[in-house]
Amino acid sequence: MAIKKLGTRFLCWSRFLTENRFTLFGKRSVLAIAFSIGALNCQNAFAWSDPGHQIIAALAYSYLTPEAQAKAQAILAQDTDTLTQTDFVSRSVWADKYREAGRPDGASYIGTREWHFVDIPLSTNGDKAMVESEEEKICPIVDLKGGVASLGAPAQDCIVNKINQFTAELADPKTSVQEQVFALKFLIHFVGDIHQPLHTSDNDDHGGNCVWVAPTSHDPMRLHGFWDYQAVYLLTKGAAPADYAKILHDEITEQQIKDWQTETPKDWAADSFELSKNAAYNLGTTTPHCDAENKTTTIKLTPDYETNASNISKIQMEKAGVRLAKILNEILR
User: Fold this and answer.
1) Contact 1, 158 (CB under 8 A)
2) How far apart are CA 193 and CA 15, in angstroms?
3) pTM for this one?
4) Which of 180, 198, 179, 187 is nearest to 161 (CA)?
5) Any idea what DSSP says for residue 227?
6) Of 139, 155, 267, which Cα lies nearest the Cα of 202?
7) Who is most buried in 6, 233, 263, 313, counting CB within 10 A?
8) d(CA 232, CA 227)
C-alpha cells in the first residue's frame, strides 16, 4: 500500500467545509428526533471544515431505527473524549480531530492517518472489475491480531478495510466498551470519507492536494480542498448541516435507498474512483504531480465544472448517509 508522507493528503470529505432492517419510520418524525439531540447547533460547533460530515451524519441518523438510535447514543454516552461534542452528528468529525491532535509525530496521527483513504492510481483504466482488482493490490485485507481495529491496529491500512473492521467490531458482543466507542466514531466518519472522490485516487499529487485551482467565486485553493469544501458550500450556501440534511432526506426516493444498499465498501471506493477520474480530474489540462506543484499557475475552473462537482457531491452525501444508516441498523439491533 502506498504510504503518504505529507499530512495534507488526509483532508477528509468535509475538511474545507467542512423491519426490513432498513425501514423508513416516517421521515419527518425521525428527523425531528435526529435534530433534537444536537444536530441543530452543529453549525456553530466547528469551523468551515466540518459541514459535509455533519450533513451525512444527520441524514444517516434520520434513517436509523429507534433501536439503532438508542444503541448508538448509549455507546457515545460512555465516551469521555472532549475533541468534539458528544452527540452523533458532532462525533462525525471526531476522527479528523483525533488525527490532527497527534501532529506531527504523535500516535493518533501516525497510527490513523492512512485509514482515511485508498490510493487507487489515477492511471488505472478499464471497467469496475479492473479498478477493484487494483484496489485489492493496494489495500489487501489485514488480519487483525486479537480482532481490534483501532487500539494497536496496523497504521498501514486503508479506508475499505477499516470500514469493514469497525463494522465487524460493533456487531461483536464481545467488543470492549472502549473499542465500541472508537469503532462507532471512526465508522461514522469513514463512510463519509470514502464517498469523497479524491479519497479514493492518487496521481502522485496526494489526492489532488498538490493541484491548485481557481474557482469562479473563491480564492485559489487545492483541488482536494475544492471538493472537500467549496463544492459542498455551493450546494448549502452555508446552511446549517441539519437543515440541509433535511432537504436531502426529503428528496431521496425509496427506489434510491433500495439501489444504494446493494453494494459494499469495496464497490463504494471503486465508484468514487471513477468519479475522481472522470469528473474531479476533468480539468481540460494535465495536472501536476507534487514535484511540480502549480500554486502560481492555477487551473481555472469553469461554472460547468463547479456545477457538476456540486451535483456529484450532493449524490455522494446522500449515498453516504443512506449506507451508514444501513450498516448501523443491521448491527445495532
Assistant:
1) yes
2) 10
3) 0.86
4) 187
5) I
6) 139
7) 313
8) 7
Q: Please say whether the beta carbons of 224 and 197 come within 8 A.
A: no
Map grid coordinates 472502549 to a residue. Answer: 178
DSSP 68-90: HHHHHHHHHHT----SS-SSTTG
Q: Give the angle 131-169-328 at the CA atoms, nearest 5°.
A: 75
Pairing verdict, β 201-202 and 212-214: unpaired
Poorest-pLDDT segment among 46-50, 114-118, 178-182, 196-200: 46-50
pLDDT the model gives residue 141: 78
Radius of gyration, CA atoms only, the chain:
18
Asked whether the predicted pLDDT for residue 63 surpasses 60, the reply is yes
Across 78-100, average pLDDT? 97
pLDDT tens digits along 237-269: 999 999 999 999 999 999 999 999 999 999 999
Residue in 57, 11, 85 with CA at minimum distance from that of residue 191:
57
User: Which cell numbers hold the place of 69?
Assistant: 438510535
* CA separation for the pair 92, 193 (Å, rounded): 10
Q: Can you tell me the distance from the alpha carbon of 150 to that of 321, in angstroms, rounded to the nearest whole number?
A: 23
Give dist(CA 131, CA 135) in Å, integer. Answer: 6
What's the CATH number of domain 7-331, 1.10.575.10, 3.40.50.1980, 3.60.15.10, 3.30.420.40? 1.10.575.10
Identify which of 320, 309, 282, 274 has the alpha carbon closest to the alpha carbon of residue 59.
Answer: 320
Length of the chain as a residue count: 333
Three-state secondary structure of 92-124: HHHHHHHHHHCCCCCHHHHHHHHHHCCCEECCC
* Residue in this structure with the C-alpha cell 500516535, named with its chain if needed: 107
